[in-house]
Structure formats: structure tokens, C-alpha cells
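Operator note (shift B, R.M.): manual run for KOW domain-containing protein requested after the automated queue skipped it. Running by hand, logging everything below so the morning shift can see what happened. Input copied straight from the record, untouched. If output looks odd, do not overwrite the archive copy; leave it for review.
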Amino acid sequence: MTPEMRNRKIRIIGGQLDGYTGTLVTIRGSKTKRLLVELPTLLAASIEVEAEYIQLIK
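Run finished. Output pasted below as returned.
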């Protein structure tokens, strides 16, 4: 996860939000990442997601 990934379209590929797509708004934390992800079909939510569960959509 890098600051350059902000405002990019992402897909969550694991856990309870598996399959949701949204926009990565902010990244916080060093070891455990806290992401603010805007999910248009739900809401904007601050969630903790392991980096391996985030896939950039090109």
C-alpha cells in the first residue's frame, strides 16, 4: 500500500466485504493498514483490511 494508490479504484478480494469495489480514499497505519474506502453501493467506511485483500482495478 502506497500513497500513490489513493483515489484509485479497488476491489476487496477476501473477508466479509469480498467482491465489493470502491475508491481507496486514505491509507493510515504502518503495520496494520486502516483504509477509508468509498463503496458506492453501501457507504464510505473506515475498515481494517490486510494488504493482500486489496486489488487495484485498472
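Quick read of the result: The two ends are 16 Å apart (CA to CA). DSSP finds no helices and five strands in the chain.
Leaving this for review. - R.M.
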